[in-house]
Every structure is written in structure tokens, then in C-alpha cells.
Amino acid sequence: MSVTVLIGMQWGDEGKGKIVDLLSENNDIIARFQGGANAGHTVVVNGKKFVMHLLPSGILRKDKTCIIGSGVVVDPQALFAEIETLSKAGVSIGKNLVISPRAHCILPVHKAIDVANESKKSQKKIGTTGKGIGPAYSDKTQRLGIPMSYMREDNGEKLESAVNAMIEQKNSLLEHFYGGSVLDAEGVLKEVKIWAEKIAPHIGDTRTILLDGINEKKNILCEGAQGTMLDLDYGTYPFVTSSNTIAAGACIGLGIPPRSIDKIIGVFKAYATRVGEGPFPTELKDGIGGIIQNEGNEFGATTGRPRRCGWLDTVIVRYSAELNGVDEMVITKLDVLDKIKTINVCVAYRINGKKTDRITDDVSILDSVEPVYEEFDGWRSTTAGATRIDQLPENARRYMDFIEKKVGAKIGIISTGQDRNATIVLEKQ
Ligand code: GDP
Ligand code: IMO
Ligand code: MG
Fold first, then answer.
1. Using a 6 Å cutoff on CB, does residue 8 contact ligand 2?
2. Which of 68, 82, 118, 422 has its CA 20 to 30 A from that of 205?
3. C-alpha 235 to ligand 2 mean position (Å)
4. What is the CB neighbour count within 10 angstroms for residue 102?
5. Cα dihedral angle (86, 90, 91, 92), rounded to 10 degrees?
6. Interior CA angle at 392 toward 391 and 394, to 5°?
7. Nearest ligand 2 atom to alpha carbon 130
8. Ligand 2 mean position to 13 CA, how many Å?
């Protein structure tokens, strides 16, 4: 039995969904612990593509319990849309989906505020997904939020007073700043009550399910969203998301004890991408960035935005390995580099004339560092679809050995394509 936490080591979109789906085969429970529908986790099975936003990526497999934990912010509209899409594709979602009564609800007003904040001249543009994540977590922190437990029929009064208080607060802000209140609490409540009826059957005691699972020696996989560099506390603030994306977030977002975690898996891409604003030391603004973007199909799974592309930054991946306590790494999208003649890897930064290979607690240095690269001869042959390590060219293996040394953690899985099967699982040494 084991409890595994899987997280992204860069700026999200590392290919976590594909790996969670793969590992789900040997897990009984798969649980999301933070974030919301800002996530876009792609899984491709026999050429058929699925994108999970709120549902754990284990949902495609039969007989798995899928949990949306207390640390997640749930947009009911997004949830229903996702359930509908998957149901149409033949994926059944019923008792296998359990939502924590502590998870908070995203209302349309949160999405509207998110979008409005992004267009304010006085506020830094973050490049959010517009899914209402920041405003919903803010309301939770301000004790104005709507926990899922209020969606139960016997909590109707609580739901009503929470919706009224939230809308009153938003209206008073609107009145203060714009001279008029526009939100109609009654209308919002009516809509939320319709959602509540649909959601209530899924609300369950997720913490107890997990604790019983741990005691019954089941295998549990905790699925991180976003990536380490987008962590609210340890990422490139303010260009971050509004939750703790690192492995420690799994304990808070699921209510499981830190000592129950047996293994931490960190996923990284063979290069680097970032969506939205914020520092990105190895960003490629030239032709190679475009080639990687095309070859890797680097367009957001949630918003469709083009992802900024760059070389792999081992300073960042090492920081992630340390911060998360990564036991094993997964490298994805190795095949995307198949045609590249010379591959660069950032091994250190130069800042004010000094060289450093560590990120200190002041991540703001990332705004002004100059990356120091080591050059690698590309393999210029195909790794796409490889399922055995001996199918990989020598230069690709050298590239990965080098990364392991720089980061100080071992690679256990190599992903060579979108499909579930395009994967090399390495034997334990
Ligand atoms: P996530 O958010 O971490 O789950 O990652 P996304 O799904 O947003 O983005 C990863 C993209 O890369 C998806 O389109 C995946 O299907 C795709 N992908 C994952 N692994 C590989 C791989 O090894 N090779 C290639 N070419 N594509 C991959
Ligand atoms: P997955 O789970 C990549 C980014 C946004 C923006 C910042 C804040 O698919 O890896 P938010 O909407 O969360 O307030 O936006 O975080 N971001 C992601 N980038 N992958 C994600 O999720 C992301 N979720 C949020 O682009 O820069
Ligand atoms: Mg994604």
C-alpha cells in the first residue's frame, strides 16, 4: 500500500494528467487537493483525447474512487459541463466521484471579478485563466465563502445567508467604486439551489474515505494541479495561482497526515513552458521557441492560449526537487526535442556578475538573471512512441543522465508521446 503525491515541477502543463492516468491503474483512490478548473489535464487513450479540469485524471478507469478534496475550489457549472462531456464519451460518473463538504464554491461573480481584475490598469496583469480561482480563494480566506456542505438540502438556510452575505459584500464594493449595485442576490440564490440539488449526491466524507483507505492499505494517488513555480507561497509571486501547488499542499487539501505520504513524484517537461505573465529566465523568443511550440503543440488545455516556450532550467527543477522532497521524477515530451540540432540546458544563473546555481528565498531574482547554458548535441532521431529504454538514442540518455545529476533526483518514467502507451517505465535499480 502507499500514498503517492504527484506534482508539477515547473509552471504547470508538465503532463501530469497523462502520468496520473497511467499510475491510476495501480491505485484505488485518486484525489485532487488544490486549484480548480484552471487546471487542464490531458489524457490520450488509444488516440482519444480527454481533458480533465476538475475531475481527477483517474476518472477514466473503472472502479476507482475519485475525490475532489477540501482544498479545491469547485465551479459547479464547469463540473456539470465536464461530467456531461465525459458521460457522452462513455465515462460513467456516479458514486465514484466524492466531493469534500469543505471544498468551496466558485460563483459566476468570482469569474467576472477575475476577468475584470485582469483588465484594470492599476493592477498587475497576471494572465489568469479567468476561472475565478483567486476571487474564490479570497472569499474563503475572508470567511465569506460557500463550502460545499451548504449544498446539502438540510443546510438550505446556511446557503441562503452565505449567498446573501457574499452578494451584499460584492454589491457594497460595486457601489463604493462604481456608484451602483448590480447583483441580484435572489437570482443568484435561485441558480445556486439548482446546482445544489445536482451536487449534493456527490458530497461525502472525503477525509474519512482517505483515512480508511490508508488504514486498509489501499493505494492512493494525490494529483497536483499547476506547478511548483505557480505556488502561492513558493512560486514567482505575484505571478502565481492562489493555492499551494507543492506536495505539502496535499496534506492541507485532503486532511491526511504528513506521515502518511510514502512517495512524492515530480513531473517535468524535457524543456520549459509558461502560460500567462511572469519571469521565465530560459524563455526562447526566437525561432527555436516557435519550433518547440509547434512540435509540442504548446497551446493551453484550458484557455487555448499559446504557451511561452524555453530551454529546460535545472536550477528550477532542482529547487522543485528540494521543496517537494521529490523521490522520483518523470520526464515528459522527450520526443518534442527529436529534431533539435543543439539542445541547451540552463545549469546556473548569472546575476550582478556572480554565478549561482541555487534559487534563494528571494525568487524575485528571477526577473533579472541571465541563464548560463550547457550545450548538448541533439539525437536527431525519433524517440516518439518508444516504450523501452534501449530504443532511445545515446544522446537522449546522456541528456537525462545529466539532468538527474544536476537536479539530484532519479528519473523513473520517461514519456515519449501523448498516448497512455507511449511511456517507458524504468526498472528500479
Ligand atoms: P498537465 O496540465 O500537466 O496535465 O499537462 P497538459 O495536459 O496541460 O499538457 C501536456 C500536453 O502534452 C498534453 O497535450 C499531453 O497530451 C501532451 N503530452 C504529455 N506527455 C507527452 C509526451 O511525452 N510527448 C508528447 N508529444 N506530448 C505529451
Ligand atoms: P495545470 O494543472 C499552467 C497559470 C495562469 C496564470 C496563473 C494564475 O493544467 O498544469 P489562475 O487562473 O490560477 O489564477 O492563474 O497560473 N495557471 C496555469 N498554468 N497550467 C495550469 O494548470 C495552470 N493553472 C493556472 O496561466 O499565469
Ligand atoms: Mg495543463
1. yes
2. 82
3. 12
4. 18
5. 110
6. 125
7. 12
8. 9
